[in-house]
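Worked problem 6 (solution included).
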Amino acid sequence: MQWFKRLFGLPSAGSLSNHGSHSVRRVTLSDPLVIVAPRIAFLNLLGASAQSILEEDKLAFAPLFASCEESQIDTPQCDVLLIYAQLQSDGQIRAASESLRDIIHRSRAPIVVVATENDGKSYIAASKRPGAGRANLVMTLKRNGPTSS
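Solution. The predicted structure is:
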């Protein structure tokens, strides 16, 4: 979780952007991505079976953010999105009509974490599915206890 805490800091001059805008800039060591008043959201597409790990994650991560949202249906717009979903071998999300890329696009999150364990082959298949979403994507292969620390 330390890498997550280091992500948020003071912005460099000229690096602030409006949450609604989709400006593109090159993120470098000297001009890092800094999110002012970051918003986190938890999208639970697994329902009750993922609620306990979602609650653990929310307890650990929510204090680091200006706002926190949770949904089981609609994809929330946020800066960091944690998705609780099962990816099938063809890359489709079980019980969802949208692809992983579509969910990422709809959220507008530059950072997305698939917070439930999925097979590496399913992640590869999901990355090949069509969709416009682009983000720094963390794909969980194995959760190492509470909050994946």
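Discussion: The helical segments are 2-6, 48-61, 100-107, 120-128.
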